Amino acid sequence: MNAAELLLIGVMPFLYGAATRLPFIYFVIRLSQRFELGALPIGLCVGSYQACRVVTSALAAKASRLSHLLGTAAGLAGFLTVYLADTNSLAPFVAGTVVIGFSETMSSLQKYAKEAATSQARKDRAEASLKLKAQYASVMLGVVFAFSVGGFVYQFSGINGVALFGAVVEFSALISGALYLLLARNKSDTSAESELQEGGRSNAEEDAAAVVSKKLTTLMLESEARYVTDQNFPVTWINVILCISFGIEALTIGYNLSIGPIFMLEEFQKSTGIIGIMFAVGAASGTAAAIGVTCTSFGKAALQKIATSPFDVCFSMAGIATGVLVAAIPSFPVHVLGVVILMCFNDLGATLLTELQGSITTTSNYSLIGPMGQVVRRSLNVITALTGPLLFSVYPRLPYLVAGGVTLLWTAVLYVAFKQRTASTAEKISEATRRKKDSVVRRVPFALSETIRALVKRGRVDGEVREEAAGGT
Q1: How would you write the pLDDT of the chain (473 residues) with one tens digit per residue?
Q2: CB-based contacts of 16: which residues, under 8 Å, 6+ apart?
Q3: Beta-carbon count within 10 A of 141 CB
């Protein structure tokens, strides 16, 4: 691993995870305890922070590098504003913390990883999946770091201490981001675009009508070779439903982050240091679960026995719903258990969704689909930030009950959608290759079947066009 890869896969996502999660340790607690704001003003403040995260995620779709550097610089300015301002002044505290939300740079980092995998292993979808998984693991480690250290820093050094801590993290993120872009400058956007266009043109010039007559093995190999650079693979409704799933996955963790600290403070009288440790334990458990299940042969085999892709996503979503409902039980040990279950399945679900989306999406399409998933995710975070304190004011456990119910409902919808898609795709590939549907289902993984489906569909359309042209002459 060279210096650029170390920054891309390890350092930058770690610092991003730490910087964006640190405000959750102190924001709601301070607004409620020090400034005595009500549920609606608190919801608007936290919602504004989450809305800033939406802005940089959306900007990354068109200008990933600009979004990355400006967002990180804005986050640094936010932490410095909180540090330098009068600790008893509400306006600079809220403004500074809200601006930190602009340091939401995950969309840019994921685009970098997808582009790097394409340039290094153009015909290997596993390379892109591995980079995205490793990158997300680094994010989770950064979250553990922020929660474990941030809680105690706030408890013993107050708002100035945690703001200075955040400024150091954000400054490091800005330097590492600039250094990465400097190291990667030889692989400019223009050369990458040229490679993609050449790949798309050469594929389009082939006789796509011949695809339907190929054997399944040949079709699988051709799909693997083409999917990274072929611009003619379309975005499908599966891509869209995965983007929505990112939002539903963020619903439960969003409620947990927006009202979790104040929930434990008021319901169980726990200090911010203990709250930080509880969140860190949950985040560490989630990191261990996600890495253990998705990055080790034993974990992969165990998950395969429970559910194969894409139904492993449904399994993780059901686990998220179970965890958040357990967290609603009025007992501190049980609540902690529920939060740990929630975070374990949340991180597993996010990793599986990221891997699946990256596996079925070409590099050109991912420049839109990747940020779209983060935009949906952060938009749902805005909703949880606005509604969480309001629901909490009605009944402290209501946010957990709402999140659990919605997640269970979406899990059922997702399962039905995946079943329909799997059966439909197997039938189309079976017709094209003259293989039995059962054989197709056994031999072709879901991600690969999606690209084969696109290849077969394009072959039929092109073939029909050619036949019509021949008939008219």
Answers
A1: 789 999 999 999 999 999 999 999 999 899 998 999 998 899 999 999 999 999 999 999 999 999 999 999 999 999 999 999 999 999 999 999 999 999 999 999 988 988 877 665 444 556 667 777 889 889 999 999 999 899 889 989 999 999 999 999 999 999 999 999 999 886 554 444 444 444 444 444 344 434 444 577 777 777 766 665 566 677 899 999 999 999 999 899 899 888 888 899 889 998 888 888 888 888 889 889 888 998 888 998 999 999 999 999 999 999 999 999 999 998 999 999 999 999 999 999 999 998 899 888 887 888 889 899 999 999 999 999 899 999 999 999 999 999 999 999 999 999 999 999 999 999 988 888 888 888 888 888 898 888 888 877 766 434 443 343 344 43
A2: 103, 104, 105, 106, 109, 139, 142, 173
A3: 19
The pair of structure tokens assigned to 213 is: 């007559």
